[in-house]
Amino acid sequence: MKRLDRFLVRAVASLVVLALLVLAVRAVNGWRFDDGDAPDPTDLATYDLEHDGLDIEHVTGDYLAGFHLLPTDGPAAAGVVVTFGGSDGGPAYAQAVRIAQQGYEVYSLFFFGQENQQPALDRVPLEFFEEATDRIEQTARSAGPLTVSGTSKGAELALLLAEHYEQIDNVVLFAPTMHVNQSLVVGRESHSSWTLAGEEVPFLSFRSASAGDLVHQLSAAAFNYPVTYRSTYESIIENSPAADEDAARLDPSAVDGGLLVFAGGDDRMWPADTAAHEIGELVPEAEVHVYPDAGHVFSAGEVVGGLRNGGTVEANEQAEQDSEERLAERLTEWHR
Asked: For residues 28 and 36, what is the distance between their CA atoms, to the nearest angstrom?
């Protein structure tokens, strides 16, 4: 009995030491990779609507939600630009402001996270874009051309919209993907990020991810270490049945006008550089720029919100500057 008691005491002591070790490692990593308290991108109160030379208003509809930016100074460019952010729920507002300050009418749109929308990135109805095009046709100072810019999940959305809405003339993709992916609400059932006419758009499921990648993610989360999802998305593509992979593939050739693509070669979130090169092969006239040492989001550091973005600070800054200059050039060309 005494031996059993000693064994139990040692076992409990070992568990306590292990727990303390995990807590210590979490604390150290929390300090090492602290990227500050980022504002909630779905909180409307965090958006500054006062910018020189711009008239900015909050717009809503049945599902439509976002901001309308209208330049009040200088020459007016033709057409409208629509911006979408990524899986954080933001509408790429900073980008929208920069574009509007160059003379373009812009709609900076949420696609989830607002009171009249899906609360999370899960089964978002693509038909919400019809509200945007109807509003543009009725009120825009110049209804065409229409350029849609999307980043990450917003890039996935932009390509998908181009397949179904002929009103879109040009598409700009930052950190693109070549597939429709599962929603970011994980449960016993897998669902698409998007729906069309009430039906889920075919998608790749996280259930196809390799066990090793899932264990790696759980381990990183346990020790408060920045998580990378790139290998997970790569394994999903590799392990998915051929029919599912084909059904979930996006079609960049559906873009009738200009197609401008940016990606980082050190993207740790998903294989955007691979997708960018594939888009370039499928659509030779597309303009594709891959920055070898940049990460997923050029304006961010190596770590964002506990996720590993990738790239170096210098490479991301250079990629951001170069991509902004090239985008400005293309918009000038497209919106004469």
From this structure: 15
Determine, yes or no, domain membership for 295.
Answer: yes
Strand 105-109 and strand 80-84: pairing?
parallel
Please state which of the ranges 32-36, 91-95, 263-267, 330-334 shows the lowest mean pLDDT: 32-36
Domain assignment present for residue 19? The answer is no
Predicted confidence at residue 228, as pLDDT, reads: 84
Domain total for the chain? 1
173 within a domain of the structure (yes/no): yes
pLDDT at 223 over 90: no
Q: 164 with 252: CB under 8 angstroms?
A: no
Its domain, for residue 127, covers 33-334
- DSSP symbol at 81: E
Residue 166 covered by a domain: yes
Domain with residue 206: its CATH number is 3.40.50.1820
How far apart (Å, rounded) are the C-alpha atoms in residues 249 and 245? 6
Can you give the pLDDT at residue 34?
45
What is the C-alpha to C-alpha distance for residues 159 and 172, in angstroms, rounded to an integer? 9
Instruction: Give strand pairing partners of 150.
Output: 84, 173
Residues in a beta bridge with 298: none
Q: Tell me the average pLDDT of the chain.
A: 87
